[in-house]
Write a structure and sequence with these properties.
heterodimer, A: mainly alpha, B: alpha/beta, D-Maltodextrin-Binding Protein, domain 2, 2 domains, 10-stranded mixed beta sheet, 10 strands, about 45% helix
Chain lengths: ~500, ~325
């Protein structure tokens, strides 16, 4: 932890790696379908010839860049580039629609850097104690956490609770299609080989979010995004002021992101959603979440980048990868001959601390790199004529979906979901509850089945589901989330009556 | 049928001529090595360990990619549709490729997979947290006997190597434990370390990764693992149990016999490298050498054992 490790992270080679990694990661992350996992998997062999700390710095920089890059497509195309950016679409796209796309991209950059720094500092200073969080979460805690995640549908669907819940339920049913993760049963495939791999989250994201946008682009004559006539060249200052004004939101969201990142079964999408709904719950009266509220972007983007540092905590301390990209990093370390797991912090301390400082440097470098790439991405999306934009993005959706696992079935599923999403959107069903159900369904199912098996074996089903303190706390949060909107609506209704 | 025999005749002719002229199959550029699971598991890590040795010995890049889904079924069902020119191959796992098609139609049949080499296995092991009251396998068995079904054991997946090991050992020891399936070894270890379960059916690789945080009670090998000289084998303790999850590599079945032979020789060469063996052993793996000529017998023997065990346990019909 001393200065020596900081200096060894500061070599020109390591800084160049961090910069390259952040740029490469941002670009990969901005393309729907290309994920951080994929970028890391391809680049791992390059790191074999490096020393372990440099290898880790490169991989960590790509990872953190990719999580930020996911915001571009979310803001400019209403399509999360990575699952972590789902909640970024809620306010990012409305902002872009009304001509504030450049502001939204800059906000995302500030928030990502802030969240990334909080996560990395947690990794630097608090990793061993925080790693216990990962172990405190058993099957039942994951079950209740996913129920809590599903309850967020209530707060996310403005005035459309029933449609939101129906979408969530539909998503959960989709998640059961294919070979079941833990019971190995083959379900709801109707004998079709196309469905055996199930509905992948990334493919569903592309289908449900991007295809409807493309159909609408073709169906309406307007420009894709509003552009003000006097395009202000730089809105970085404005974004910075907005971010500073919402520092409590940033801090709260980053802490949520770090903690959720530590949980191996959750990930950036859950972190972003929890932080978003917390920001919305504590909103000031003038804030309109879901209609282009800057705080929505700040909450999601800080939380999802905080999961990077958070996810490395169980990876490095316990040898348990927090996310798929962490798993690749773990594999790369093993090839390098570095023993991860409990012994790593003590035996390979210099590698660990050099890496953590490298991650901090990469996160800081993301600020200039991200703002520059963001401006370029915004300009190109805004200025490209629709006749070029639609086929280009359409092509990318197919390539991106295919490349997830070289499966044409995934492309068919993606296109079908896309048309389905466009049709049901006419009837007021949003994509997000469906995707939320798809992501959280398997977590809930596994936790429930495992908890039930353990509870039944020990003759303590009630205690298993309701007796554990962390479960009780999550359950309490869930009830508050579900009751609060009803309560507020009634209060508003009553005060409206009085005014009459 | 006629077309296939013509093809076969053609292939045989091609082999004959290549032997006559001394020409052999060769690599043309980078090789795709598809892992039909997500990253971080035993299949991924052993492929990553092969990667630098392959580059060093044969001068070509080995690109590892992941095609998860259906517990490996998505990948294996697509394997024979890929180009059989020897530039693309896929990891295969036992017992998965035997049990899955026996359960239901999953789009592939065991005998249609052109598995050309099995290069290692991860021996089954009973793992407990360091703080566990079970110091020895005898403690564990005694407690489990006295408390039927009370001993919860995490493992990776259902009808998997871990699950079959649990069923087999329960029968041998005359005990009844409760198996709790998790998604992969990582999640199963997390449950163990968090004391969500009392023990784990894992592999020697868990002992290597977790070090002092866990204790292995016994390993399913013929002799003790060099990394764990103090951990007894099940055999020493009177249980005739050896085996685990076996991993190998397959080519699309359109690959020619000479391409298959070339790959079998190349993987054998990597497996023979002392440095590679040491890295694998340090990771807790156990080496295995079954080449393309020996594969049919090996598979038949494994299939008989797995299918009997799975049938006895009611996992397949």
């Amino acid at each position: 932890m001393e200065l020596g490790h900081f200096l060894s992270a500061m070599t020109p080679f390591n800084i160049a790696l961090a910069l390259f990694g952040v740029i490469a990661g941002t670009i990969v992350g901005s393309i729907p379908g290309l994920t951080a996992t994929m970028a890391l998997a391809v680049l791992v062999p390059i790191t074999f010839s490096m020393d372990p700390a440099s290898a880790l710095i490169l991989l960590g920089a790509i990872y953190t860049g990719a999580i930020y890059g996911g915001a571009y497509a979310a803001i400019l195309l209403n399509t999360p580039g990575t699952p972590s950016a789902i909640a970024t679409t809620f306010d990012g796209y409305p902002m872009a629609k009304r001509g504030d796309g450049d502001l939204a991209v800059a906000l995302a950059c500030f928030a990502s850097v802030f969240g990334g720094l909080v996560g990395a500092f947690a990794l630097l200073l608090l990793a061993p104690p925080l790693s216990r969080v990962a172990l405190a979460f058993g099957p039942i805690e994951y079950f209740w956490l996913s129920v809590f995640g599903l309850s967020l549908i209530a707060s996310l669907s403005n005035g459309n609770l029933m449609k939101g819940l129906a979408g969530g339920a539909f998503g959960m049913i989709l998640s059961t299609v294919g070979v079941a993760e833990i019971s190995a049963d083959i379900r709801l495939t109707f004998g079709s080989q196309v469905l055996i791999g199930g509905f992948g989250v990334v493919g569903a994201l592309i289908g449900l979010y991007c295809i409807p946008v493309l159909i609408d682009l073709v169906a309406v004559p307007d420009r894709h995004l509003q552009v003000e006539d006097n395009v202000k060249s730089v809105r970085i200052g404005e974004a910075f002021r907005l971010a500073m004004r919402s520092k409590f939101n940033l801090i709260r969201s980053s802490i949520i992101g770090t903690l959720v990142g530590i949980l191996p079964g959750a990930g950036g999408s859950v972190a972003g959603l929890v932080a978003y709904s917390e920001a919305k719950r504590t909103a000031k009266p003038h804030q309109r979440f879901g209609e282009g509220e800057p705080d929505g972007i700040l909450a999601t983007e800080s939380a999802n980048n905080a999961t990077v540092g958070g996810g490395f905590i169980p990876t490095l301390v316990l040898g348990i990868p927090g996310t798929p990209p962490d798993a690749i990093v773990l594999g790369a370390l093993l090839v390098q001959g570095v023993r991860t797991g409990p012994a790593m912090f003590t035996q390979s301390g210099s590698i660990v601390y050099t890496f953590i400082y490298g991650l901090l440097i990469a996160t800081v470098l993301m600020l200039p790199a991200g703002l520059l790439i963001g401006r370029y991405a915004y300009k190109s999306i805004v200025t490209i004529p629709k006749a070029v934009l639609v086929p280009t993005v359409g092509f990318m959706t197919i390539i991106g979906t295919f490349s997830i696992r070289n499966s044409i079935s995934d492309v068919i599923i993606m296109l079908c979901l896309g048309v389905f999403g466009w049709v049901v959107a006419r009837f007021g069903f949003a994509a997000s509850p469906i995707v939320l159900g798809l992501i959280l369904g398997p977590i809930a199912e596994q936790g429930f089945v495992q908890g039930w098996i353990i509870g039944a074996a020990t003759n303590n089903l009630v205690g298993m589901f309701f007796g554990r303190p962390i479960s009780q706390a999550i359950l309490a949060f869930t009830i508050i989330t579900l009751i609060l909107p009803v309560f507020l609506a009634r209060k508003q209704h009553n005060s409206g009556m009085e005014a009459d | 049928m006629l077309r296939r025999s013509i093809l076969k005749a053609g292939a045989a002719l091609a082999i004959a001529t290549s032997f006559a002229t001394g020409a052999n199959a060769e690599l043309n550029g980078p090789v795709n090595y598809i892992i039909p699971f997500g990253p971080g598991g035993e299949s991924d890590i052993s492929a990553r360990l092969q990667q630098p040795f392959f580059k060093e010995k044969f001068g070509q890049d080995m690109i590892v990619s992941y095609q998860p889904g259906g517990g490996g079924a998505v990948g294996w069902a697509s394997l024979n549709g890929l180009n059989g020119d020897g530039q693309t191959m896929m990891g295969v796992n036992l017992p998965h490729i035997i049990i899955k098609p026996a359960q239901k139609d999953v789009g592939f049949a065991t005998e249609n997979l052109n598995t050309f080499y099995m290069f290692h296995y991860t021996p089954d092991a009973i793992v407990v947290p360091a703080s566990s009251p079970y110091q020895t396998l005898a403690d564990f068995v005694a407690y489990a006997k006295a408390n039927p079904a009370q001993v919860t054991m995490s493992g990776s997946g259902k009808a998997s190597a871990n699950h079959l090991a649990q069923i087999k050992f329960d029968k041998m020891a005359g005990i009844q434990t409760t198996y709790v399936p998790f998604k992969g070894t990582g999640a199963s270890v997390t449950a163990l370390l968090g004391n969500q379960v009392k023990a784990q059916w894992g592999y020697t690789t868990v002992g290597a990764a977790q070090g002092d945080a866990v204790r292995m009670l016994a390993v399913a090998m013929d002799e003790r693992h060099p990394l764990f000289p103090d951990v007894p084998t099940f055999k020493e303790l009177g249980y005739d149990m050896t085996g685990g999850a076996y991993r190998g590599i397959a080519l699309p079945n359109t690959a020619s016999a000479e391409t298959t032979k070339m790959w079998s020789d190349m993987i054998a060469e990597i497996n023979a490298d002392p440095e590679f063996r040491q890295k694998m052993l340090d990771g807790g793996f156990a080496m295995l050498d079954v080449n393309s000529d020996e594969m049919a017998d090996f598979m038949a023997a494994r299939a008989e054992e797995y299918l009997n065990d799975a049938r006895a346990a009611g996992l397949i019909e």
